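Quick one - inputs below.
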Amino acid sequence: MPEITYREAIHDAMVEEMRRDENVFLIGEDIGTYGGAFGVSAGMLAEFGPERIRETPISELAIVGAAAGAAMVGMKPIAELMFMDFILLALEPLMNQAAKARYMFGGKATVPMVVRMPGGSGTGAAAQHSQSLESILMHIPGIKVVAPSTAYDAKGLLLSAIRDPNPICFVEHKLLYKVKGEVPVGEYTIPLGVADIKHPGDDITVVTSGIMVQKSLAVAQKLNQEGISVEVLDLRTLRPMDSQAIINSVKKTGRLLVVHEAVQTGGWAGEVMAVVSSSEAFDYLDAPMRRLAGKDVPIPYNRFLEAAAVPQEADIEAEIRAIVSNKY
Amino acid sequence: MPTPFIMPKMDMDQEVVTIIAWLKNEGDQIEKGEPVIEVETDKITSEIEAPESGILANILYHENEEAPVTKVVAYILKEGESPDSIPELEKKVEPTPSKSEETSTEDVTVKPISHATPLAEKVSKDLGVQLKQVSPSGSKVTRKDVEAFAEKLKDQVIPRVSVPATPAARSLAEERGLDLESLSGSGPRGRIQAADVPMQAPSQPEQVLAETVQAAVTTSIPLVGKRKRIAERMTASYQSTPHIYLTVEVDMTASESARKRINLLAEKEGQSAISVTAFLAKMVAWALGRHPYLNASLQDEKIFLSEDANIGIATAVADGLIVPVIHGANKLTLREINMNLQYLTKQARAGVLTANEVSGGTFTISNLGMYGITSFTAIINPPQSAILAVGGLVRKPVVVDENDTIAVRPMMNLTLGADHRVVDGAVAAAFLADLVRALESPELVLY
Amino acid sequence: MTTWKKEEFDNFETTDVLEKSSELGINQEKLIDMYRTMVKIRIFEEMADKQYALGKVHGTMHLSAGQEAVAVGAGFAINKGDYLLNHHRGHGHFIASGADVNKMMAEFLGKDTGYCHGRGGSMHIADVTANNLGANGIVGGGLQLAVGVGLAVQMKKTDQIVLTIFGDGAANEGIFHESLNMAAIWNLPILYLCENNQYGMSANVVRVSAKTPFKDRAAAYGIPGYYIDGNDVLAVYEFIRKAADNARSGKGPVFVEAQTYRYFGHSKSDRNLYRTKEEIDYWKSVEDPIIRFEKLLLNANLIDIQSINMIKEEMSKVIDESVTFAENSPEPDVKDVTEWVYA
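Output:
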């Protein structure tokens, strides 16, 4: 299988689906000649033209609002936000319009749209360009939240997202764009709402997503050599959450660590723990459930401060060691 | 005129109720608002309260009979009133025993006489109250009694679950029929972990036997509980710790003779005999004082040298292995070590060691001599840096002096396993040499 | 507070209905139908108010009595199949665009037979299958969706247009500017109908807007803008028709601001503390859109008092029947409460 980057996987998914379905179009800032802030749409203007690679003014509210409107009348827009942080300018159309149209109109509307947004820290972009806001997005019924961790997942999940009849927030991590992975040529989909065991293990379950999957995998491989067997469960879709996969894994290992970059307070780790403690998996717990999340601070600029603000491999390793040895 | 006791209408389309019980008898004093009748409609069961205070009289509908709503079901006599003042028409007609009742006398009452009304029974179930504990305010326990009792219960401080245990440990203990309070926890703050829940109840040896027999015929035994924990720890240690092993043979003549003499004294004083293991522990504690790297632990890239020699004694128990720890063995006399060891062994066999009694070890002694083993190697109990494997005493001919004199002596093999990251071969050898010296000349230590 | 001047209107007041209707190509039947629909809206709104007073309405509502000319003028000027995006005071526009008052009343009473099966209520009545994309509870909510609908129409190359109706309040939302700008740069077939009823809840439009009329703001985006008498049903029809033709022929968006007035308070909790009784009375007697249209029709002998009374009786019956329909309709099944969150 050829190795391509996460960025290329997303690009390929869009290009392939736009070739297949003329109702799919891309709308966003600087997505044409410039190729998008992170180069994801590079070359697409030449193939699809300015009508389907719809470059907009800097009007995030109207971008997401227009995507919602177009989706309600049969189009399948992909809106690209330059940074996830900017979704805060467009929560109105996302949460009040797109998420609710179907329900408040009695099941008669469908809003098949995808909002792609690069999130996460690690690029020195500081407080307003580095956030992980997925927990906020997950709080709204009617929206699905997808966060791929590998190139393979990115392509398969994006194809599913574009074809899904619901509004979807597709959270990409900036640091993952350059990460390569094996991706088959051509069409394949990964169902939304299905988690994936990225590394099987028996001693502890690490539930995570996005960039933290990569970090957790590195730790799992290291600890494996010492006989500490870590199961890394990549949720892939944060909402709807694959509760059964979480429950099954915790029943097997008896220990749970949730790792996410989003800040801790109100973060989705709490949701994962609630899933466990209100299921039969609770009776299998042999240690308190723990979480490792972004610190409750805006993302700082300085590289050391920035790294300290979100979980790193060493943090994950230490936390796992503590839990499996009952030293917490 | 006497007050009519009217059956109230409780529902829009309701016509009758079934009387389940009269909570008061004719002639009883009843107070306004007090429950007097328990009735049942097709929807609910409820209590009908007295509309007035007075003496209950002239009950017109009896238990298990249907009574029309909005109609009189009894009367309440106020002071000075007599049943005679009840309107003639409404006076009750004593029911003549019917045929069915006659035949029913044959199969004597099967139903036990309940001291509570059916409603009270139902409510007690709903509220989770034990009916036996409720004392009736009248002839029978009523709903009000149950509710009042439940209310009182609420006010009581419900004691916190006294034994800290993980959910897994709780469910395992329940599954295995074990009382958590009889277990000791190895988790933080003494929390009982799944691994602390033994396969069988230690207090029920018959069951242990039965289950062991059963285990022998099954083809697979799930790796759970203590067994799993041992497996995990030993695997981790074996895989992550580079072990080195050094073996020496010790002439135990002097030690054995010293131990015998001490035990004669002990017997006179009514004390327990000093065991080989206790004797060894004393000698090891002394040697550890001279070789701190053997009394160390490697954690988080740091070597911690311990002042105290906390010597763990590997002890076989029904479902595996446990290592109780003699804390500060370097500061204890031989007799104290022996007493400690006896107590810990007893606790271990009963499965009631506390977290403190199994934690904090800095060195471990594993003695398999009583099983006829002469020499073996052991796996270090992390994060400790060494373990001493002790074989049995074997009387055999050895060369005892430089003239090649051969004599039969009680010999014992000691194999030291050490973590090479902490202990080099020479250091380990020096420790063993000192230990041999102590065992061959115990006066060095016991003096 | 003076909030408007007739001399600023871009239309001439309709004085001769015969002349105007022939100019616009409206026959007598259609004129009477417009009148009938205005009456229908008025009676619906009054009945809605009554249902509320009787305690049959669970939530609140925003009534459009007094604004019927805007609803009917616009509703009759666009084509079937054109898209409609509405504001929260939306009953009139839906009735004017042919909605079933039974389903509307049922929705209003929260019944399963309502347009939204009782999920939306007064503020979210929609009929997506009829290209009615709903009233919107968010002020300016339709303005952003309209851009997307306009894009879809443009990309699918149909001859539909998008009518988005919003109030004077929405003109001060940020999205107003984002929406107009995008529609202008992409030449989208969107008709912006600003229904200026002079109050955003209690805020008088002049007090909260730096510059009125709002058509001047359209000029900032190069969009043709008109300020018209919104209580003159034929004026509304005329300008919306022209604007629709303009948009349909690929000339891009048009902005029409219709001056009108609402009779009821903002919602049921409004005690009208911010305006005078005299002001309300003036609009109800002198400017009432139904009375004005009635006079024109009577003067032109297109209708007589008898017919007027008949129409009113007929419409009352229709609305009464809608209440009966709604009352006899089942409540939604609570076990379905989580239906329709996702497609």
